[in-house]
Amino acid sequence: MNDAISTPSQRPHTALVWIGRLIAAALAFMFGMSGVMKLKGGPELAEGMAHLGLPDSMVFPLAILELTCLVLYLLPWTSVVGAILLTGYLGGAMCTHWRVGDPFVVQAGLGVLVWLSLFLRDKRLWKLIPFRTLK
Predict the structure, then answer these.
(1) 6 vs 65: CA distance, rounded Å
(2) For residue 87, how far is the Cα from the chain centroid?
(3) What sign does the CA torsion over 73, 22, 41, 48 have?
(4) Nearest to 117 by CA among 27, 29, 20
(5) Does pTM surpass 0.85?
(6) Alpha carbon distance 55, 2 (integer Å)
(7) d(CA 54, CA 45)
(8) Residue 4 CB neighbours (<10 A)
(9) Closest CA to 104 of 94, 112, 114, 96
(10) Which of 14, 29, 101, 133 has its CA 20 to 30 A from that of 62?
(11) In this predicted model, what pLDDT tens digit does every residue of 1-37 receive, in sequence order?
């Protein structure tokens, strides 16, 4: 067999892969609900946008951007591109919150979880970001 991941030592541990998938599912729920709520609109959303100093005209484009990044992240063959785009999206959210004096620890935590989930699910990243193993 000439597979890139052919020997058992090269395969990611099944439990780690499932932990990564569970984190990805939780992220999908959070980003998905955020995008849907932006599409739905409402007075709370308008108040939040006003607090952040953003016009209401940005809500629909932000929702489409967020949901597109999420779909790219969830598809295995585009997951790395999706993670990069979600990281950029969260970076913009962090700057926006920082600018008005709000805490941005949630956005930073979500960015870490995006990459942790992908790292646990994709063995190729294990080679790109190697960690030393104890012997």
Answers:
(1) 37
(2) 6
(3) negative
(4) 20
(5) no
(6) 54
(7) 11
(8) 8
(9) 94
(10) 101
(11) 444 444 555 555 888 999 999 999 999 999 999 999 9
